[in-house]
TrEMBL record:
Topology with respect to the bilayer: Multi-pass membrane protein
Protein name: Major facilitator superfamily protein
Pfam family, one: BT1
Homology family: Belongs to the major facilitator superfamily. Folate-biopterin transporter (TC 2.A.71) family.
Organism: Artemisia annua (Sweet wormwood)
Predominant location: membrane
Location in the cell: Membrane
Length: 510
């Protein structure tokens, strides 16, 4: 059971003075109130939770996940295309390999939950994640000569591994706080979403500039900076130190905890209220084939496509990051209290329909309608990111509700690894489709057909919406409560059977 506990380091001080009657009745300026509202919200979260935990969300979700992931995505696209000169279907396969560290999140989760380092369960893993990311980014960007494809792939996987380990560690803190402060779960996810989108905005906006002026290989070395922030967080984040584990008793306890964690995960995943929504989350991602590399190569092609520049490609995605923030605000302000099934049904429906905007763009029907390429792609990017964020937020909130108490980090990591497995399936499914329909670096004849298949598969996901519970965030029972209830029910049935058998046996003996 996790010993990570939050403490309130900032406590509101009672006010003893009284305001004059005329001041008390004065209404605040609406504009000032609107500006101060985010700061008041952050102050409230810092008062209820640990301020260093809020700093961790900013650094991991904002700088590591938001900036690094977006910067990584753009720069590696150009790295494989211009430096290594790899075909799009092969790059799609490589991107799937980046997701392997994310699929391994239960392993990182088990390590943080049951294997403390020097008495700490979270802090050392932030440091380890930062060191791995820094070393890998330095190797791939070192020198004026390019490294081989295999070496570059291993380095990029290591960079992704550093992000994944740090993500698991902060998610363990988020999952625990979401259970202890259930009413604040949407607020925490909203803060994570805003930080991630804001970081992505900066990453996308600057990626094209650095690729153009530094080149993709040197630009990858800049990822060492966010990795260093993970090391910093490992030294400053608050965590209560556990008992010493330098003795054989401590090692035996860790092994026992590992066995208990595995059994708890096995018992929890068998609960229908857990495995059904988990299956839906996997299918909703896996069935939406990712054909990003085919679109990227087409975007930047000077003959078949619109020939967007590096700066414009980064700017398009930066605008998409802004749209993601809008999606977070829409969910937080308007949709967070809706039942999961109803919200996810309409979100998935709009998500599927938005896929046909890609088809219109590939067929260049936007020009027939008199809409320039740059304007249409911006509109398409905004719609897609808003809908994607609205679709993703309730699934994350639901995932935190499915974590049993005491195994928050491990089980949340398991759920997120299933989502990452869905992303891997989506990437490799897209790679197969691109290969089957012969979409290459220069041939985009069948790209429209690939895009059409992708949009249809998104509609197919609606057939599985019944797997999602038709409850709200406050009505979803915790798996620990379900297991405890089932255990009590089993004991009652056993006792009831014994009460019926004993008199019958007594009568037979008589």
């Amino acid at each position: 059971m996790s010993n990570f506990e939050t403490q309130n380091l900032i406590e509101p001080k009672p006010q003893h003075h009284e305001q004059p009657p005329e001041t008390a009745t004065k209404h605040p300026n609406p504009i000032t109130s609107l500006i101060l509202q985010p700061f008041q919200w952050l102050k409230m979260l810092s008062s209820e939770l640990n301020p260093s935990f809020i700093l961790g969300i900013f650094l991991i979700y904002g700088l590591s996940q938001g900036f690094s992931a977006s910067f990584f995505k753009v720069v590696t696209d150009y790295y494989w295309k211009d430096v290594q000169k790899v075909q799009p279907s092969k790059v799609q396969l490589f991107i799937g390999l980046y997701h392997i560290p994310w699929v391994m999140k239960p392993v990182w989760g088990l390590m943080t939950d049951v294997f403390p380092v020097m008495g700490y369960k979270r802090r050392p893993y932030f440091i380890i994640a930062g060191v791995v990311g820094m070393v890998a980014a330095t190797i791939v960007a070192e020198g004026s000569t390019r490294v081989g494809v295999a070496t570059a792939l291993w380095c990029l996987i290591a960079i992704a591994a550093g992000m994944a380990i740090a993500d698991v560690t902060i998610d363990a803190c988020i999952a625990r706080n979401s259970i202890e402060f259930k009413s604040l779960a949407p607020d925490m996810q909203s803060l994570c979403g805003v930080c991630s989108s804001a970081g992505a905005l900066i990453g996308y906006a600057t990626s094209g500039f650095f690729v153009h002026h530094l080149g993709p290989q040197i630009a990858l070395g800049l990822l060492a900076i966010p990795a260093s922030s993970q090391i910093f967080l490992g030294f400053v984040i608050y965590e209560k130190k556990t008992t010493d584990h330098d003795s054989s008793i401590g090692k035996k306890q860790a092994i026992d905890n590992l066995g208990g964690a595995l059994k708890g995960m096995y018992d929890t995943i068998q609960i229908p209220q857990v495995w059904k929504p988990t299956l839906y989350m996997y299918l909703s991602i896996a069935l939406s084939f990712s054909t990003h590399e085919g679109h990227f190569y087409w975007y930047t092609d000077s003959k078949a496509g619109p020939a967007f520049s590096e700066e414009f490609v980064g700017m398009i995605r930066a605008i998409g990051a802004c749209a993601s923030i809008v999606g977070v605000l829409i969910y937080h302000k308007l949709l967070k209290d809706y039942p999961f099934r109803k919200l996810l049904f309409f979100a998935q429906l709009v998500y599927a329909l938005s896929g046909f905007l890609d088809l219109i763009f590939i067929l260049r029907w936007n020009l027939v309608l008199g809409i320039p390429d740059y304007l249409f792609v911006v509109l398409e990017e905004c719609v897609t990111h808003i809908v994607t964020r609205v679709r993703w937020m309730p699934m994350i909130v639901l995932s935190t509700s499915l974590c049993p108490i005491g195994l928050e980090g491990t089980f949340f990591a398991l759920l997120m690894s299933i989502d990452s497995l869905g992303s891997l399936s989506s990437k490799w499914g897209g790679a197969i489709v691109l290969q089957v329909f012969h979409v290459t670096r220069t041939d985009f004849t069948n790209l429209w057909l690939v895009t059409f298949i992708k949009s249809i598969m998104r509609l197919v996901t609606l057939c599985f919406i019944f797997l999602v519970p038709n409850t709200g965030r406050l009505d979803t029972p915790n798996p620990s409560e379900i297991l405890q209830s089932e255990s009590k029910s089993a004991d009652l049935e056993t006792n009831s059977d014994n009460l019926q058998l004993l008199p019958l046996k007594a009568r037979q003996e008589v």
